[in-house]
Structures are given as C-alpha cells and as structure tokens.
Amino acid sequence: MDVFLNQLFVGLSIASILLLVALGLTFTFGQMNVINMAHGEFIMAGAYTTYVLQTALGTGAIGLAFGLALPAAFLVAGTLGLILEFLVIRRLYGRPLDTLLVTWGVGLMLQQLARDIFGAQNVNVSAPGFLDGGVTIAGADLSYPRLFIITVVLFVVTAIAIYMGRTPAGRRMRAVMQNRPLASVSGVRTTRVDRTTFFIGSGLAGLAGVAITLLGPVGPTLGLGYIIDAFLVVIVGGLGQLRGAIVAALALGMANSFIEYNTSTSIAKAGVFLLIVLFLQWRPEGIVVQKRRGLA
Amino acid sequence: MHRPIRGPRWAGRCALAVAATVLAAVAVGCGSDGSDTSSSSGGTTASGDTIPVGILHSLSGTMAISEVSVRDAELLAIEEINKAGGVLGKQLEPVIEDGASDWPTFAEKAQKLISTDKVAATFGGWTSASRKAMLPVFERNKSLLYYPVQYEGLEASPYIFYTGATTNQQIIPGLEFLKKELKVKDLFLVGSDYVFPRTANKEIKAWAKANGMKIVGEEYSPLGNTNYATTVNKIKQAKPDAVFQTINGDSNVAFWKQFKDSGLDAKSLPVISVSTAEDEVKGVGIDNIVGQYVAWNYYQTTPGAENEAFVKAFKAKYGQDRVTDDPIEAGYVAVHLWALAAEKAGSTDVEKVKAASKGLVFEAPEGKVTVDGENQHIYKTARIGKLRPDGLIDTVSESDGPIKPDPFLKTYPWAKGL
Amino acid sequence: MSTLARLLPRSKPTPSGFLVRFALMAATLLLIAPAVLSDFRLSLLAKFLCFAIIAIGIGLAWGQGGMLVLGQGLFFGLGGYCMGMHMKIVDAGPGNLPDILTYSGQYDSLPLLWKPFTSAWFAVPMAILLPMAIAALLGAAVFRQRIRGAYFAILSQALAAAFVIVIVGNLSLTGGTNGLTNFQTFFGLSVVDPADQRILYFVVVIALLLVFLMTRSLVLARYGRLLIASRDHEDRVRFLGYDPARIKLVAYVLAAGLAGLAGALFVPVVGIISPALLGIVPSIEMVIWVALGGRQALAWAAAGAVMVNQAKTSISEEWPSGWLYVQGLLFVVVILFLPKGVGGAVANIREYIGRRISPRGGVPRSEKPKPGPQVAASAAPSAARPPKEVA
Fold first, then answer.
1. pTM of the model
2. Which of A53, B98, B413, C153 has the fewest Cβ atoms surrounding its Cβ within 10 A?
C-alpha cells in the first residue's frame, strides 16, 4: 500500500511538471499552431532568472528571491516570447512546420547565449528554506517541493481557466482560435490577440522554469529534456485543450511512475512513447476534440 | 500554401544577399581545404616555429557542462609551458575543436586535427563513447590522444594515454572504504545507462561476491534523465546501508536534489559517487549533498605546493568562483606529461614520445604520478572524500602511495572472467 | 487518372537541359572532387553525400508529399545498425564474438538478434527493407487515421526517441551509447586504408546518383503528380477516387528506405554508428538540410544536406565556441526570407536577372497564374519555371 501511495504521489508529481511545461504550449501550439521548439529555452530562461535573483539578493534572501522569481520569470520569458513573435513568428503564420525549424535555430542560439553569459557548467539554485522537508501521510512521503509544484500548477490552471472562460480577453482569444477570419471581421484585432497569446504561452514556460529548479539541473541544455514531453502532452490532450492537457499529463505521469516502478527507467520512457503512438491510433485528435464541421 | 514568392524587387535582392552569405560560409570551408593538401609542415617533424596541439572537447551540447572546464585546464597548462619557454624551444599552439557532445563529431574533428592541423598530440574526450569513437582514428593515423577522465578500464590502446583513474584506482578503493570504514553490508547501485556504470557495476558485483557484500538493487536511467523519484523510492524499499552512484552529466543534479527532497541525507543513507566532483557540486547545490562521499584521486584541497600553485593559477585565469577537480587536474597533468615526454625524447615524434613516456615521473597537483610503460595509464593515489559545507571536499581516506594502474584487473583474483 | 492528369499542368522539363546539368554534377563528384580534395576532406564529402541520400528521401516525402518526416533518424539508424552488425561479425571472423558482445560477458555465441546478420545477403537488404517495413506499419496506421502535420511530426519524433532509449538500454546487445565502432573491413575493402576509402567514396557517389535518377523519374511520373495533389488537397484527390493514404504511404516508405540505405553506407565511410546519430536532434537537423536547400526540388534537397554540413564543419572549425550562433542564425534567416530554400532563391534570382536583361523573356507579372483552386495554385511554380522545379 505504501508503495502504491508513494508511486501515486510520484505520478502526480511527474504529471504536475509535465503539465507545467506543457501549459504554455497549449497556447502557442494549441491555439496559434506555432511549433515553438524554443519553448524549452524559455523554460531555461525562467530557471536562470531564479538563479540571477538568488545571486543578486544574496544568501540571506533565498526564499524571497524564489518568490520574486515566479512573476519575474513569467515576465522575462514572456518578453522573450514577444520578441520572438515580433521578429520571427508573425512572418510565419500559416506555415506551422517552418516555425518548428526557425524556432529550433533560435533555440540553438539561446543555448549558446546562456553558455556565454552564465558559463557552460550547471549553476546552483537553492530551494528556499520553507520548502525543506516534507510530510508523511498514510505511509506516503510527500515532499514540500513537490507539493509546491503541484500547488503552482493548480493555481496556474485555475487562473488560465478563469482568464479564458470569464474575461473578454480570453473570449477574444478563443474566438481567434476557433475561426480567425470570422473573429477578424467581427472586430477582434487578431494580431494583438496573437501577441498576447504568445506572451502568456512563453511566460508560462518561464514559470515552469522556476518550478523545475527545485528538482532538476539548471544549465544551458535544460530545455532539451522537457520539450518533446511537453509537445506530447499537448498532442495527446488535444490541440489547445486545457482539460485535455490536464488529463494527458496525469495519464502520462501515472503511466511513467507505475511502469518505472515495475520495470526500469528506460523501459518506462520508451513504453510511454509507444503507448502514445498506440493511443493516437485510437484517437488521432487527442483526448478532448474540438468539434468542427467540414472534412479536415 | 505554396504560393510562389514573386514579391517586389527588394525580395529578389534580399534573396541574393542571403544566398551570397550562405555561399560565403561554404566557401570558408573550401578555403580551409587548401591548407591540408599544400602544407606539409607539422607536429611530427616539428619544422615550423610553433608546435600545434589539439584540444577536442564538447563546447556545446549536453556534455559541455563538464568538458569546458577541462579545456580551460589544458589551455592553462599550455600557457604555463609556453611561458617557461615552450617545448623543444618552440611555443605550443592549441588548436581547439568542438566535439559537440556527438561521438561521430569527435571522430571527425580528431581526423581534422591530425590531417589538417598536423597536431603533435591531442587532449580530449570525456565520455567513454567519445573515446571509443576517437580510438580507431588515432590508431589508424598513429597519433597520440591524452584522455583525462576516469573510466571503466578494459582498454589499453597504444596511441592513448589515460591520465584519469582506471577502476582499480577509484572504484575498488571506494568499495574497500565502504566495507572497512562504513561497515556496509547491503549496497544499492544506481547509474546512468551507458558503458561506464554498466562495466563498473559488473566489477562491483564481482568484488562484492568475493567480499561478502550483498547487492540489494541495481538501477539505470538514460543519460539526461531528470526524474529520480521512482528510483529513490526503490532505494528506500530495498533499505541498503549505502548507495554506489555512477550517474553522469545533468542527471547527477536531478539525482542529488531528489534524493534530498525525499527526506534522505548523508546520515540516514550514505552515498558514494565516482562521478560527482567539485565542478558538479556547484550545480547540485551543497545543501543537497553535504556529508556524502566521493572517490577520486585529487581534490582542490589536496595538500602540496604544486596543487596550491595550480589552484591559484586556475582561479587567477578563470575567476575566483571557479573550482578545480579531478578531471580538470587530469587534463592539466596530461598536457604537462606530454610536454615532459617530448622534451625528454628531444622530438615530438609519436613513437619517440611514447618511448620517452615509459616510467616518466611528474610532480602533479595530486602528488607524484608515474606513467606505466605497459598500459600507458598513470600511477595515482586513491582518495576518498567527504563533502563539506563550503562545497569543497576533505580527504577522509587515502591509499598508501600511488596505485599501479591495472585496467584489466589482472591482479585481482575475484575479477577473473569479467 | 486522366481527369486529374488533365487538371495538373504538364511540366516536362527539357531533357537536354537536365542531362547537361546532371552530367556536370556527376563529373564534379566523380572526377574533380577526388582530384582536388585531400583524403580527409574527400571522406567528409562522402559522409555528406550519404546525408544527401537521406535528403532526397525527405525531399520526396516532405517536399513532394507534404509529410514532415521528423523521425528519419530512426530509419537511418536501423540501416546503419544492420550494416554495422554485419561488419562487426565479419571483422571478428567466423566463430569469434564481436568485441562489443564480449564486454557484458553474457554471450558465448552470437545472440539470436545478431545471427542472421552474419550473411551479407541478409544484412544488406535488411538495411533497406527493415526501415521500409517499419515505415509501412507506422504509415499505414497513421495516414489512414489522417494524422497530419504537427501530429505526424511529433509522433515520428517520439518514435525516434523511443528507439534511442531501446538501443541505449540494451547495452550488452547493441553497444549502448557507444554504438558500434572500430570497424576494419567492408566487403574486402579496408575501412582504415585511404585508398580503399576513396573507393568507398565512389560507391557513395554512384549510389547517390542512382537514387537521384530513380526518385526523379518517380516524381516526374504520374505518381509524382498524384503525390503533389495529395499534399495540396487530400480531399479532392479522395473525391476523384484515389486513396491519398496509399499514395503518401509509398513516398514515406521510400524515404525510409533511402534513409536506411544512407545509414548502411554511412557506417563504412565514417566508421561509427551510435544512438547519438538517430535521436530527435539529428532527425530535426535532417529536415533542416532539406528546408535550407529547397524542399521543392530533389537536387536542391540533396545539395542542402551537403551545404549545411559543410557549413557546420567549416564554421565550427573557424569558431569552435560560437558556431551555434552562426548556424542558428543561418536557419532563421534562410527559412524566414527564403521559404523555398537556396534552391528557390537561385530560381528567383535567375528569373529576376532574366527579366532585367530582356523584359519579355521572363513571365510577365500580369500573367501570374491566378491563385484560384488549390491544386493549380500549388502547381504554379512548376508552371512558371518548368526546368528547375524537379531536377
């Protein structure tokens, strides 16, 4: 039973990380159809923001720096996203596959930039003191950093749901996503909506970057480890579907956790990939499907 | 969709400009082609004013986190040698190439260094895979490679000098420490999924069998894996007395963070690592690893005038926040060993340098090292270290003098049939 | 068929123009390059030409068929491992185990997976057929489900990544991350001997030229028209009574076979096959070669592979610590400003110059084909510049 509960928590924790790195993509990829391979580098930017703040504020204010890093990383990564959108992406709307190749090139440059600014070695981001330790409930060890990440995800998901569902800006975003020409003739300024969407999507990557400093390395190639997983979550969930992404992240996290416990890390990773391939045979459009008319 | 671009005139000009840039970039490469057919001067004959030496590490990609520091140490050594008058009265000229964390690139660049730059020797590599990829290149061209990282043994190429530890200088002393000092009976093995951990663990299992230690678990994870929660849970379930850790690269950070995160520390479960050194500790964060054990041959704190000078020079050149560690020192030693051998041989000719290297002694930062003439590894002192709160490592146990390298473990009866 | 054939503009290139260009290219590769390049540069070129074979496959599947094949590394690797295993067995000699199998100490005789590769008659065809078979399985399922675009791209990536993990995880059987290396002979040729490396170069060039001719004739044939039609308007093709899934499948399977062939040639030329060559990153790079060269034309796709790799080699030699900036920037600029790659740009420039020299020579702007129906719009470039498009 301990084992089961422990692995359940591990699965939940993996799912929360997957969801966090994928949330931004449900905006940029799901809604705008931009395959942003530099998303991983935006995550990296968020992680380095935490590092910079911690270094700037000194060892006395590690917790404060970490707290400040959450909004700061959102802004930093969001701004990077805006720049990318303005310089590159907006010239490529309607050419999704080209966005993949271009943003890959951008990602390469950002990696090298990080290496030149912060050094090739990993840097240290300390966990704040209040996240030290954990609680044991019914034999399952729940560590504070992992609980914190889960909380962040819950908070972000709620915020997004409210933004998308209840605010005029969110409504415009959905309108553009569902029918761009119709939204445009109805008076929605689609370019501005695109820019906002890209800002939020990239900003969320920065947020994810802060969270994963608690559990993983902070270095120039940090993004590579998360990018494919993030895309898989979005694809399995269904393009641009928040609910779908949540279910997909949970399913992948649990699958990973339990397969790994019973076999090995390698088999779990390969197994999850194969499960996804099989799943898409069954539901090629993902878990949650946007209802549409017409053929394609 | 696939609309033909037939825009305004500037589009054509723009296209022209871009095409010209691309062609120019290609032309740069073609230009450098010329040199390797025309120039015949080079290292083996050392007829020029300088002696080119190759430096081949990953400056980009996932392995750059570790390898860039080794390159720095090698450049420092070259600078020192040049300041002291060079080798055979000639200045050394480093030719730096990027292996890009990609094994075939290592092979390609090694060949480039040998045939285009005519280097007298090459210093490079980190992963076993990069060494295995370069090995045929150096053997085929009869050129020298100095490989500066501890590795899994079972190799002795006539054209490679191994300045890092082989297993009997690092892993076996580590195991003996666990048995004698920590009274470990049940051991858990975790490693990255590649040749070094697999081979090391095979040897550890054979050793454990002969020494009455029980292996209660063995886990591997792909390189670059950042999720160790399940692995740590498995360790907790198995309740070992200690963990032997051979995780490499980025994963190292994730392992230590998540090990600590799950409520374990040095007191509740000691871990001994053979792939975490001072440079990695900086990225891990000392809070996550303090009090744990490592097995190497050199630490920044190793006493001795040579080491003090080395650490001082390294920090002066690269910044006070930088640290030195075992592979960094091994890279530094490699350059000096080659320079000494070339001086002794009176030539940079590969066979003469090899002959001169036999039994060569160098006062290294880690203490006196001697080149073994037979397998071209070096005699090294094994040191078990303990992480202290400032991120440096204290030596807690040390072998009696340098240990003779034995890459094939011929002198160990339990290792028969490995 | 005939209905559709009439819909599509006929763009038979003038045969003589193509023959001249082809002969020039063949002469450069077969006569000039071996004469002017050193052994090392020639074997690098041989490596790039192996990549060019992959690029032709991608040019077919992506350029003509519109499938962004982002998992070609998988097929390249399969081909490479088939050949590598065979070469390892031959090097070890009959009755002996290849060195990588002895490391784990698990095997006394050849494991089941390796056994069939003792025979060249099995290994060489397998290097091409195995990738094709896997592509056929995957493609049949994927295209029938009408999985397209980004889905298909990410899916192929996942598969390539899974394959890498499987190879790395079965260290004792596959050599793990080290891969297979340290080869000695290739069908009696010594892999380490420069003279024999030159022979290998010619083998690669001839394979490339043959592959190019075959793929080109396929693209010019009726099938090629159908493939383009499926790319641009799958539904319309379906309404006409064709099965676009099957049409795309053929291109996808062929591309996989070409990648396998490239892998099989790569191993003797470069002397290593390792998982580092077949994961996500190399798979993306393969597509980038084609995007930069020009996806619409097979020859430019192949040229892209050579250009990008030559650029990568020379830039990283010149500036080992900063070459990623240059390479990244090159990707961005080319794809942003030359959506059709260098090939498209060259065609544009020619047209531009042609218009400048004789205002009546080029296609006047007013006669630009109307972007009406999708099929016609997409075929417009071939109508405007018949000879260059495919060759």
1. 0.88
2. B413
